[in-house]
Every structure is written in C-alpha cells, then in structure tokens.
Write a structure and sequence with these properties.
The chain is of the alpha/beta class and 391 residues long. It has two domains: 273 residues, Zn peptidases (Aminopeptidase, 3-Layer(aba) Sandwich); 108 residues, 2-Layer Sandwich (Alpha-Beta Plaits). The chain has eleven helices and twelve strands. The strands form three sheets. A six-stranded mixed beta sheet has the order 1-2-4-3-5-11, with helices on both faces. It has a four-stranded antiparallel beta sheet with strand order 8-9-7-10, with helices on one face. The longest helix is centred in the first third of the chain and has 27 residues. The protein starts with a helix and ends with a helix. The model has no long low-confidence stretch (mean pLDDT 97).
C-alpha cells in the first residue's frame, strides 16, 4: 500500500473522533426524513458541520436549493477526491434507502482526512447530492460541471451485502399519453376513439416484446390514467414504462423498440401519441475496477470480508451513474442487516438502529482509507485514470 501504516492509524483515529457527531447526524436524519428537493434542514446541517471544520461551502450548486459543494485543500494537490453526500428520504417510509447513513459516512471520512493530511496533499470535495430518489440531483450537478476537476468520486451505500464493486442498470423512463375522442360507450361507441385501447395494446405489445429481449433487459410500467367513467369512451389515457439494461447498446435498442410499440398501439387504436422521456433517465454504471480494488483492499485491511454477491446481483438504477461517466466512480455497499430489501420499513428500521450506525462507521473508515491510499500512490491514480480513459 502507498500509505504508511502509521498514517493509516492516524486517519482511523480521526474517524473514531468524528464518528459520534456523524452518528448523531444520522439519528437526527432518521427521525426527521426530508423528501427529494426538500432536504433543507439536512442540507443546512451538513453545510454547518463542514464549515465548522474549515470547509468552504458553495450553496445552491447547479441551481438546486439543497445541493452544495464543500471544498478543503489545495487546488494543486495531487489528488482531488469527491465524496458524495446523499440526503433525501422516501415518502411515508422515511430513510428506507439509508441515505441517513451514506451522507454522514462521507462527511465523517472527509472530516478525518482534513484533520490528518496537509492541504497540499489532498483536495476534498464533499458534494451534497439531493433528490437521488427521483433521479435528478447528480445529473444536474454533472451537467453544471461540478465534477470537472475531480480525479475520483465515491460514496458507500447501505445494503444487506458488503461488496466493493457493484453495478447499476441504465434506466430509460417514458411517459406515453394517448389522445382519443370521447363518446357515449353505449349510445354511440362508433363515434369515439378509445385512448385506453391504445394503452392496453401497448402493454400487450410489450408482453410480446419481452420474449425477444436479451437476458437482463427489463421493461416494466404502470397505467397512470385510464378514463373517468365506464360509460364514457376514454379520450385520454397515460402509461409510464421504464426500460433497464446494463449494456448501453441493449438499453438504446430496447428503448427504441418500446417507443415503436407505443406508436403501433396508437395507430391500431386510431389515437394520437405524445411520447416524453423523463429527466430522471440514467445511463448504466461505468465501472472502474482499479478504484473498486482500492476500496476492496481497505475492507481486507479492516478485517472485513466481502459477501458472495456478484456486482450485478439485486441491482436497480441510480443517478450516480451520471457521475461515473464524468469521473472514475465507485458506489460500494456496506451491510446493516441480513435479508433486507431496500425501500421497505424493515430497511428504514435497520438504518435508524445500531446496525445502521455500525455500517456508517465501516463506510467512513473504508472511504477515508481509500482516499488516503489514492493520495499516497501515484501508480494507483494512474491505473484508475487509465482505466477510465480507455474504456
């Protein structure tokens, strides 16, 4: 390893000193969940904690009220590392994705590094990333150039697994609105154009399409609107469908085929189609195995064995994939229980309890040591950059 054992111990000791404050913040967040783009008090507490430790905080990053970029260290440092701090919760079930752990873990790691290293050795960016649950925060931050000067970006996410390398499916999200013509369903049905028929035809076509899609490609959706009364032929019907895949080419092909299914359904029903892709669509994760390997080495040094889960096992989508296209990025998992499913009350309970707090500590230690190793090992930095540029 590039970092000396004594320096690693200094960083770990700093993590332990910062853990009580990070844990208290996590507890507050669990008790006061804030929804996407409404994370005002969480963002304010993050920013206050960062400023109290010497970070310069730029608020309203990318025009988002609750986003921020907090910086520490020299702009000329050999490593510029971005630590992502998520903050939003889910409606009704609170922090059932564990952002009350992942955000404070990133802050704790940043505080420990700033307390242990000289400013000329490292530039840390703590990026407050709102609205992960609706998939727009990191996309807007990337588009605003927030990560343009960073060498790496990372965060760790709560799970029932421990893995250094994990992937995310790309996700193309479409809303299909079909416009028909209303008529009395019994007295003059021939005068109507049934928009709901188009939605039904779309789902039938998607069901047939699934038979010809490659393994791992997902298509799923809901009917948002389907009419107002049984005796009125629906003049408007709306469906939302998502396509997911790990392979960018397969994702693009499946999305194009889905749109053609909608066009065919509209033609069959005689309806007019209005198709719209949502901003919250996201690309597949661009992996960086060199960076993930660095995190894996820190887990081993901490005596933590990875669970036997493949990188593509039990995965969904996240807006962190936008970051992975801009800068080498990892998004490892730390466990807070067994047989837990994200976005459930059981997960929220675990994230707000002792297991969640233990996971927060694991993530803070591993993140801090990973950044330290990158700061001290130019060959590792070169491998990470080479892999990113060559893939």
């Amino acid at each position: 390893m590039g970092a000396a054992a004594a320096e690693r111990e200094v960083v770990l000791a700093a993590v332990e000193r910062e853990l009580p404050a990070a844990t208290e913040l996590a507890r507050w967040m669990a008790a006061h969940p804030e929804l996407s783009l409404e994370e005002r008090e969480t963002s304010a507490r993050y920013a206050a904690a960062l400023e109290s430790r010497g970070f310069a905080v730029e608020r309203r990053a990318a025009g988002l009220e609750t986003a921020f970029v907090a910086s520490w260290g020299s702009r000329e440092a050999p490593l510029r590392a971005a630590l992502l701090a998520e903050m939003d919760a889910l409606p009704e079930i609170g922090h059932a994705c564990g952002h009350n752990l992942s955000g404070p873990a990133s802050l704790c790691a940043a505080f420990a590094l700033a307390a242990s290293l000289a400013p000329q050795d490292l530039r840390i960016l703590v990026v407050g990333t709102p609205a992960e649950e609706i998939g727009v925060g990191k996309r807007r931050l990337v588009e605003a150039g927030v990560f343009a000067g960073a060498d790496v970006a990372m965060m760790a996410h709560a799970s029932d697994m421990r893995r250094a390398h994990r992937l995310f499916l790309g996700n193309r999200k479409f809303v299909f609105t079909f416009h028909g013509r209303a008529a009395h369903a019994a007295a003059s049905p021939e005068r109507g154009v049934n928009a709901l028929d188009a939605v039904i035809a779309l789902f039938v076509a998607v069901g047939l399409l699934r038979q010809q899609l490659p393994p791992g490609v997902r298509v799923h959706g809901i009917v948002r609107e389907g009419g107002t009364a049984p005796n009125v032929i629906p003049e408007r019907a709306v469906a939302e469908l998502w396509v997911r895949a790990l392979d960018p080419a397969q994702l693009a092909d499946a999305a194009a085929r889905l749109v053609r299914c909608a066009e065919g359904a509209a033609a069959a029903a005689g309806a007019r189609l209005e198709a719209r892709e949502l901003e919250s669509s996201s690309p597949p994760m661009k992996p960086n195995l060199a960076l993930a390997g660095c995190y894996r080495e820190q887990l081993a040094a901490l005596g933590l064995a990875e669970s036997q889960h493949a990188p593509d096992q039990a995965i969904g989508s996240s807006d962190v994939t936008h970051v992975s296209l801009a800068v080498p990025t990892i998004h490892p998992n730390f466990p807070i229980g067994r047989e837990l499913q994200l976005h459930t009350r059981a997960f929220a309970d675990a994230a707000g309890g002792a297991a969640g707090e233990a996971g927060l500590g694991e993530a803070a230690r591993a993140l801090a040591l990973c950044v330290l190793e990158l700061a001290r090992d130019p060959a590792l930095r070169a491998r990470v950059a080479r892999e990113f540029g060559g893939s």
